[in-house]
Design a protein that fits this description.
This protein is of the alpha+beta class. The protein has one domain (about 10-190, about 285-405): FAD/NAD(P)-binding domain (3-Layer(bba) Sandwich). It is built from 11 helices and 21 strands. The strands form 4 sheets. Strands 5, 6, 13, 14, 15, 16, 17, 18 and 21 form a 9-stranded mixed beta sheet that branches. Strands 8-2-1-12-20-19 form a 6-stranded mixed beta sheet, covered by helices on one side. A 3-stranded antiparallel beta sheet has the order 3-7-4. Helix 1 links the parallel strand 1 and strand 2. The chain is globular. The two termini are about 35 Å apart. It comes from Marinobacter metalliresistant. Its EC number is 1.14.13.-. Pathway: Cofactor biosynthesis; ubiquinone biosynthesis. Its cofactor is FAD. This is 2-octaprenyl-6-methoxyphenyl hydroxylase.
């Protein structure tokens, strides 16, 4: 193939796609990157100041994800509106079992953080404006044809119709709902949990004390994450509430006061009285994995490769670790004079990320399955397990590392002044 139009095309400019673009620009600056995003970009997307909305959707960032964003030079921006999680409280409704994690016990500033998706997007865009990353927006990748040493990608937009770009590699980062993954021939495996996640922000009479609550109930797990000010423990939390179809339909029809009352019944009084609930969003809960997420010239990342139950807040954090693993393989390939779309390059990414995503999927899925059982022997065993986590330092340390996103294998990009995986410094 003659010199392609660009080296890397990223289909999707959301959090995963934009983070990948920034990581490549920072770590492998010789590569030309083009991001294709369905939503238009405008100057309004980058306001001079950020005013958080009560109804903003948010994402839980593990401590390991903070380390990644520090590596990308982005954390100093994100931290301005990232609420720290100092404590995690895990409990089983109606049973004695509980465990508590504290950042101070592990020598950390925080176990994780909660940040608005819009704020994260703004921070990424501001950083990307300082790079040579090119954008095609609004546009969508609608098809791809393999070619020797690369791919030919078809773009469709309302303004310019259909046109083509050639590249060394296409990375699909547009989530699992666009249909591009299936159109390119990837075969995802789906397991429905028969439940839905209701997402909303809530206010309580007691402040959250920078505590994240993971509450398992007979109707499914629920989580409340501290939200709002990064420096003052406030009264707002981000809610993830698991409901079956019938219960979801019933809750959505209730006035806000009755929603709060129903939530109070399920969660309890650890945060006092529920006083307000914001706009409710919901989506069906499905475990989705793609066993072979790479082909010559193409790789899937983020939710396009694996979508998890939100019970442990691991989805985006797993995606971040995968992105950094992929960028490390791009860096090595470039140093060795290989094409970044070479199947051997992409398979090395797959092999290095596989153990992490398999362990994370098993961890999240097992929590849902174990705490979804109501038989007395199982409830007794899991309650004993929660108490054991509180009493056994080794088990608690393992659980804390999982919660902090430090249990997976992740390459640290070698560049001047940074540490490689072996711990030696490159000057």
């Amino acid at each position: 193939m003659t010199k392609p139009d660009t080296d890397l095309i990223i289909a999707g400019g959301g959090l995963a796609g934009a983070t990948l673009a920034l990581a490549v620009a920072r770590m492998v600056p010789s590569l030309r990157v083009t991001v294709v995003e369905a939503f238009p970009l405008s100057p309004d997307a980058l306001p001079e100041s950020y005013q958080p909305s009560y109804d903003a959707r948010s994402t839980a960032l593990a401590w390991g994800s903070r380390l990644i964003f520090e590596e990308l030079g982005l954390w100093h921006r994100l931290a301005e509106h990232a609420t720290p999680i100092h404590h995690i409280h895990v409990s089983d409704r109606g049973h004695f079992g509980a465990t508590r994690l504290h950042a101070s016990e592990h020598g950390q500033e925080a176990l994780g953080y909660v940040a608005d998706n819009r704020w994260m997007g703004l921070c990424l865009m501001r950083e990307l404006l300082e790079t040579n990353v090119q954008w095609q927006a609004p546009a969508e990748v609608t098809d791809m044809t393999p070619m020797p040493e690369g791919v030919r990608v078809q773009l469709t937009s309302d303004d310019n119709g259909t046109r083509e770009l050639t590249a060394r590699c296409l990375v699909v980062a547009d989530g699992g709902r666009s249909g591009l993954r299936e159109k390119l021939g990837f075969q995802p495996s789906h397991h429905s949990y028969g439940q839905n996640a209701l997402i909303a922000n809530i206010s309580t009479s007691d402040n959250h004390g920078f505590t994240a609550f993971e509450r398992f109930t007979d109707a499914g797990p629920m989580a409340l994450l501290p939200h709002g000010s990064p420096s003052c423990a406030g009264h707002q939390s981000a809610l993830v509430w698991t409901l079956n179809d019938e219960a979801l339909a019933e809750v959505l029809e209730l006035p806000d006061t009755d929603k709060c009352r129903r939530l109070q019944e399920r969660f309890g009084w650890r945060l006092g009285r529920f006083t307000r609930i914001g706009s409710c969003h919901h989506y069906p809960l499905t475990l989705t994995t793609v066993d072979e997420p790479v082909r010559p010239g193409v790789a899937l990342v983020g939710n396009a490769a694996h979508a998890l139950h939100p019970v442990a807040g691991q989805g985006f954090n797993l995606a971040l670790r995968g992105l950094m693993t992929l960028v490390e393989q791009f860096r090595l390939a470039t140093e060795q004079g290989k094409s970044i779309g070479d199947l051997d390059v992409l398979r090395r990414y797959q092999a290095r990320h596989r153990q992490d995503w398999q362990q994370t999927v098993r961890f999240s899925d097992s929590l849902v399955r174990v705490f979804g059982q109501s038989m007395p022997p199982i409830t007794a065993a899991r309650d004993a397990g929660l108490v054991g986590l509180d009493l056994l330092p080794g088990a608690k340390r393992w659980f804390a590392r999982k919660a902090m996103g430090l249990g997976g294998r992740r390459a640290v990009i070698s560049r001047p002044g940074r540490l490689n995986r072996g711990g030696t410094r490159h000057e």
